[in-house]
């Protein structure tokens, strides 16, 4: 089970869209995917067709330790894609867990329990990827996500201020690595909402690649109206319109993520170990 946090303290950069559609694309190519909605807004849950009325249990109950993660999971219209939905209750979770010594590890321990439970299952029933959709803030929820993850995937919108805030995010990842989670790495940076008609966009892509080099995925997600329409139908764009440029880009990103994962995993195991 590989755990990736989708994080960027800016709102509207494509975290939720990427969680939903990268998750769907990974599931489409055979991975067993769990999306953990850690944003009180619950847009990932809504975008995956989980009605608010059907969210009796949510990631809130998991974080405060009232329910195991397994109890809140809901299936989606996408085969092999499961979601742990969120509700607005999450807004209060910081206050509730702030006084606990293990406050940054609530999600991590829930995921560990889930992983242990899965040991008795067949491979087809075990999650291979967990994508955590973070809120637009470097708060305790995001700390929980980073503490529980192998790596962070950063969606970055192709706009003039794209690089602003990235340094802060990267230094937060460094701090988390030092204090909460020594294994944490940056998986990659995905440029989103690229508009080829906007001459500035190409410059932003070049700047970000110049600054972050290989960490930037080759795949760039285009600005695509089908991507923005899909959530109102409670569907990932791949179910809404598989042929559109947005769906094709997320499929490409998924194969790049898997490719990179192989390289990272090999590096973790070290030379001479079985891969
Ligand atoms: P975040 O989770 O970072 O706040 P979202 O994923 O919710 O960002 O995206 C913000 C808005 O932009 C949403 O309305 C979403 O539908 C839209 N959007 C995201 N990616 C694209 C894209 N590639 N093309 C068009 N619209 C997009
Ligand atoms: Mg979001």
Automatic annotation (TrEMBL):
Record-linked Pfam families: AAA_31
Protein known as: ParA family protein
Segments forming domain AAA: 1-185
Source superkingdom: Bacteria
InterPro entries the record matches: AAA_dom (IPR025669), DNA_Partitioning_ATPase (IPR050678), P-loop_NTPase (IPR027417)
Gene3D superfamilies referenced in this protein's UniProt entry, alphabetically: P-loop containing nucleotide triphosphate hydrolases (3.40.50.300)
């Amino acid at each position: 089970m590989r755990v990736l946090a989708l994080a960027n303290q800016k709102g509207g950069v494509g975290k939720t869209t990427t969680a939903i559609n990268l998750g769907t694309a990974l599931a489409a190519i055979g991975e067993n995917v769990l999306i953990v909605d850690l944003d009180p807004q619950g847009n990932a849950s809504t975008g995956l067709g989980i009605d608010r009325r059907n969210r009796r249990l949510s990631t809130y109950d998991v974080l405060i330790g009232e329910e195991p993660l397994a109890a809140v999971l809901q299936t989606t219209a996408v085969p092999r894609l499961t979601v742990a939905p969120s509700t607005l209750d999450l807004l209060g979770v910081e206050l509730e867990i702030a006084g606990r010594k293990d406050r940054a590890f609530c999600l991590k321990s829930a995921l560990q329990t889930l992983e242990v439970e899965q040991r008795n299952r067949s491979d087809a029933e075990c999650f291979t990827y967990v994508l955590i959709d973070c809120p637009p803030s470097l708060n305790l929820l995001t700390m929980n996500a980073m503490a529980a993850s192998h790596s962070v995937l950063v969606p970055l919108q192709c706009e003039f201020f794209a690089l602003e805030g990235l340094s802060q995010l990267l230094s937060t990842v460094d701090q988390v690595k030092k204090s909460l989670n020594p294994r944490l790495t940056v998986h990659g940076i995905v440029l989103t909402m690229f508009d080829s008609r906007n001459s500035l966009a190409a410059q932003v892509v070049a700047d970000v690649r110049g600054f972050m080099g290989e960490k930037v995925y080759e795949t760039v997600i285009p600005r695509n109206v089908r991507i923005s329409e899909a959530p109102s139908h409670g569907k990932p764009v791949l179910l809404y319109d598989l042929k559109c440029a947005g769906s094709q880009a997320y499929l490409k990103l998924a194969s790049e993520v898997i490719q990179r994962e192989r390289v990272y995993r090999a590096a973790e195991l070290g030379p001479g170990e079985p891969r």
